[in-house]
Design brief:
alpha/beta; Rossmann fold; 8-stranded mixed β-sheet; about 25% helix
Length: about 200
């Protein structure tokens, strides 16, 4: 069973509907026990880092998420769900994240040429073989909407990068932990293929 974490700040139903389109069962839960029982876990997210990490702590959802990852079970973070995995974010202050990945979340540089947030379709440059990108052609487009991006300390966790104002990490992978800055559930055929690959892990 695929479990989607509900902490009040994700586009939960669209993620669930994407899996339903693939014929996969996906349950939405805000229950820590339900998260602890998950075989595969998804942490979506839309909104401010401060509010999101605050809600996860308030609802006692951090421990079961960390335990799930420590157990080596498949995990997928989406958009803000990627950023929350890092040590610290500088979005409207300084806020501590979950600390699963060493690094920071920083704002795009304002070069006066490109709009912030980065919103719309863009491509990935894969860093190497990745089970979630299998069967997805090079140059496939994915949908982004964000003003901040992650900067991992360990470059080896970067599974793919994207150009916008700078080259930034748009996907990470470490063992069975994966996370994307883009929204696969909004990325049509390529996004559905990525979610199908995750379901098949």
């Amino acid at each position: 069973m695929i479990t989607i974490v509900d902490y009040g700040m994700g586009n939960l139903r669209s993620v669930q509907k994407a899996f339903e389109k693939l014929g996969e069962s996906a349950a939405i839960t805000a229950d820590s026990a339900g998260i602890a029982r998950a075989e595969k876990l998804i942490l979506p997210g839309v909104g401010a880092f401060r509010d999101a990490v605050g809600e996860l702590r308030k609802q006692d959802l951090v421990a079961p998420i960390l335990d799930h990852v420590a157990a080596g079970k498949p995990f997928l973070g989406i958009c803000l769900g990627l950023q929350l995995l890092f040590d610290v974010s500088y979005e409207d202050g300084r806020w501590e994240g979950l600390g699963l990945i060493s690094g920071e979340v920083v704002r795009f540089p304002d070069n006066g040429e490109l709009k912030i947030p980065h919103m719309g379709w863009n491509t990935l440059e894969a860093a190497g073989p990745n089970p979630l990108l299998e069967g997805i052609p090079a140059g496939a487009h994915f949908y982004f909407v964000h003003s901040y991006y992650v900067t991992p300390e360990d470059a080896s966790v970067t599974a793919a990068s994207t150009d916008y104002a700078c080259r930034f990490t748009s996907m990470i992978a470490r063992g069975h932990l994966f996370a994307t800055q883009f929204h696969p559930e909004k990325s049509q055929r390529a996004g559905l293929k990525l979610l199908s690959n995750f379901a098949a892990l």
